[in-house]
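Module 6 notes. Inverse folding takes a fixed backbone as the condition and produces residue identities as the prediction. Think of it as a translation problem where the source language is geometry and the target language is the twenty amino acids. Below is one complete input and output pair. Work through it position by position during the lab.
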């Protein structure tokens, strides 16, 4: 592979977990969810530790990362909008407890998606605007962007060709499936939220 970085810039709930698995199986050091960039002072140097980066907050930073790592390749996973909205509804309802979101993640969602909670109108508009912006940005660089529609699945030889990697068989592509939050996750998340509100009140 002769590229600076592989940046997978699909929105949350668009197959980024599965793509992370594919890239890892292809031998790349891939990181899914880059918390070290979720800061007022992002740790850009840490990006150098990985071949591929994706999930939050990469979609909001792809233009900056393009500037910092010229010669990178970008993979955009797209989930059909209605299916994506249903999955985002789950994420804002159950996922926040399962993944134990902290305030920084809520702030990121408010900044990037325009909401801290599920709002179909806002998220639907964001889906439209984000993909339009990505296609416009790469309109004169078609060889730097690979688009994968989640409903079509991951065609490994297409990914290998795009990244100039030797083909490798990947029998089972892992999916990040929806599930209900367990009671422990529910209590942990809500206790942390209550503490945060209390501290804000005291201040």
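Target side of the pair, the amino acids:
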């Amino acid at each position: 592979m002769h590229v600076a970085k592989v940046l997978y810039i699909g929105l949350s709930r668009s197959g980024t977990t599965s793509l992370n698995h594919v890239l890892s199986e292809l031998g790349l050091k891939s990181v899914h969810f880059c918390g070290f960039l979720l800061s007022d002072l992002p740790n850009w140097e840490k990006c150098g530790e990985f071949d591929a980066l994706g999930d939050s907050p990469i979609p909001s930073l792809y233009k900056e990362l393009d500037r910092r790592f010229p010669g990178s390749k970008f993979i955009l996973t797209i989930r059909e909008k209605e299916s994506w909205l249903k999955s985002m509804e789950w994420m804002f309802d159950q996922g926040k407890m399962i993944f134990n979101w902290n305030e920084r993640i809520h702030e990121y969602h408010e900044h990037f998606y325009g909401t801290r909670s599920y709002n179909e109108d806002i998220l639907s508009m964001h889906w439209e605007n984000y993909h339009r912006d990505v296609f416009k940005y790469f309109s004169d660089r078609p060889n730097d962007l690979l688009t994968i529609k989640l409903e079509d699945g991951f065609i490994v030889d297409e990914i290998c060709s795009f990244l100039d990697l030797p083909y490798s068989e990947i029998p089972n592509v892992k999916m990040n499936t929806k599930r209900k939050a367990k009671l422990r996750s529910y209590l942990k998340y809500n206790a942390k939220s209550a503490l945060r509100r209390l501290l804000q009140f005291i201040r």
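Reference fact for the lab report: The domain at 6-202 is CATH 3.40.50.300 (Rossmann fold).
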